[in-house]
Amino acid sequence: MASVDWDHVQDLFEQDEIITLQVTGYNRGGLxxxxxxxxxxxxxxxxxxxxxxxxxxxxxxRLAGYVGRTLDLKVIECExxxxxxxxxxxxxxxxxxxxxxxxxxxxxxxxxxxxxTNVTDFGVFVDLGGVEGLIHVSExxxxxxxxxxxxxxxxxxxxxxxxxxxxxxxxxxxxxxxLTANPWEHMTEVHHPGEVVPAEVxxxxxxxxxxxxxxGVEGLIHxxxxxxxEGIKNLEYYLHVGQPVQVRILHxxxxxxxxxxxxxxxxx
Length: 268
Known about the structure:
mainly beta, CATH 2.40.50.140, five-stranded mixed β-barrel, 5 helices
């Protein structure tokens, strides 16, 4: 990326300026854009007119239609060491200087409103109105999360809690789970070994199944506690995700957030 003037790009990022660049190409993830002093990438999630409901072919056709056009954009990531420049059309909608205003107003512990712009294996990105924050997968739920897409969907409005703000790196860490009380703190008071409670199966594994209690806490029903009906050899033919069940509390380890369950019966 020899044609890039990195000092110029850094100034654009720090001053939160809107620039106009031409779309020169595209790939599965977004658009390639270029100007006199820079070139970069605009992810699909940062484009205004590419709905998340499009099929893969429809999205590629929509992206192809951008080639040759010019877009008003903002630099949202500038990493010279990685030769990486990421831009956003959504951020440009907020107007110049909006990012700086937001970083000056954001406070740790503050509740903020936003919209989900992207869902990845490691978490959920949220547009706060010109600044994008990340809800790490570990901050999505007090229970086990198989995939962030099970919790949030692109385009959804969401309220989150600010955990960390760093204007220098343009990073905002958010939490969804900390808006609610930690159910593990009272598990030993609410539930005791031997108690039978309703639950819902959330995952099937070779060693058993995970089930979620009404409080949102998940526990493991070990395969050794499950008696399969005659003729059924595989657990996935007996249980399924979403299956309501009755389980017996076997042990509660709130410090390690471990909950042992035994299967009592299936519910209709």
